[in-house]
Amino acid sequence: MDAPALQCHATTKHFGDFTAVHDINLEVKAGEIFALLGPNGAGKTTLIGCISGLSRPTSGHIQVFGYDVVKQFRTTRALVGVVPQEVSFDPFFTPHQALMIQMGIMGVPPNAKRADELLELFSLSSKRDAYTRNLSGGMKRRLLVAKALVHKPKLLFLDEPTAGVDVELRQELWSEVKRLRNQEGTTIILTTHYLEEAEHLADRVGVIDHGELKLVENTEQLMQRFSQSQVLFRLGRALENIPPGLPAGATLQTAQELLIPWNTPEELSAAINKVQAHVLIEDCQVRHTSLEEIFVRLIKPHSEDKETSI
């Protein structure tokens, strides 16, 4: 398909007097992994609902691979898979039955072989005929992903896919996300509170806050634009003041801990030499700005404005 996987044009969603999503303009390319970041209540899940057909936008329009989600909803619904935040199953069905039922819901002829393949893919074959109520939290999360894939969607939404799962399972899900994109060509949009997840997986990042899309940028370029590297020195003796000649922004974290910003290896080397000229360095630790720190910096002004107005 030559059309973008997703196009949102001035998309707005009201619930009475409350605006959950306001004037969103967004384009996601086919085959990319896009991370939609935002605090709780920012509008992420509402926007996903509008795109997937679970909710209808109040104004604006949305296209999935060139098809209008309102006027051509049957076509777009077949192209979209959604893994919701909430873990919910009928407790009296088995994982295999749940997948077979999901095929019927999505208009796909029931295919026991396909169901078994998905169970194998997500390491659930041993629980094929167990009641879903007896699955662990991580297994239920994997089954949610399997259900979203029964109809082989071209656009997959992962709404907090690793919430409440252990580190090992999180790594497994990351690998599966990459496999879906690289081998199946699936376009993936994920929301997450694990900023490390977005930094590790996403080609591009969008930040939404209070229903408004604040920015959309290549993940690597975003990291470079907001990056601020620092070096933390543990000193051989206590200092009362910052030694002269150090870069602007140098601060004493404690009497024996000195933090200095730097951007190039040359600046780092110069900082080390200047500190050594004044005091013995017992240890040093280099730090780099994380996506989580950038995210907090981007939404903090809005949060502070809101606090001031209360």
Element pattern in H and E = EEEHEEHEHHHEHEHEEHEEEHEH
Q: Rg to the nearest angstrom?
A: 24 Å
Calculate the mean pLDDT score and round it.
87
Major β-sheet annotation? 6 strands, mixed
CATH topology of the largest domain: Rossmann fold
CATH homology superfamily of the largest domain: P-loop containing nucleotide triphosphate hydrolases
Number of domains: 2
The second-level CATH architecture of the largest domain is 3-Layer(aba) Sandwich
Give the low-confidence spans: 303-310
Overall, the morphology is: elongated
Q: Give, in spatial order, the strands making up the sheet with the most strands.
A: 6-7-8-3-9-10
Q: What is the CATH level 1 assignment of the largest domain?
A: Alpha Beta
Helix and strand content put the structural class at alpha/beta
Helix content range: 25-40%
How far apart are the first and last residues' alpha carbons, in Å? 48 Å
Approximately what portion of the residues adopt beta-strand conformation? 25-35%
User: What multimeric state do the chains show?
Assistant: single chain
Q: Please work out how many helical segments DSSP would assign.
A: 10
Produce a short descriptive summary:
With 310 residues, the chain is α/β, with parallel strands linked by helices. It has helices at 44-52, 73-79, 95-105, 112-121, 137-148, 167-184, 195-201, 219-226, 265-276, 291-309; strands spanning 6-15, 18-28, 33-37, 59-64, 67-68, 80-83, 155-159, 187-191, 204-209, 212-218, 229-235, 251-254, 257-262, 281-287. The chain has ten helices and 14 strands.
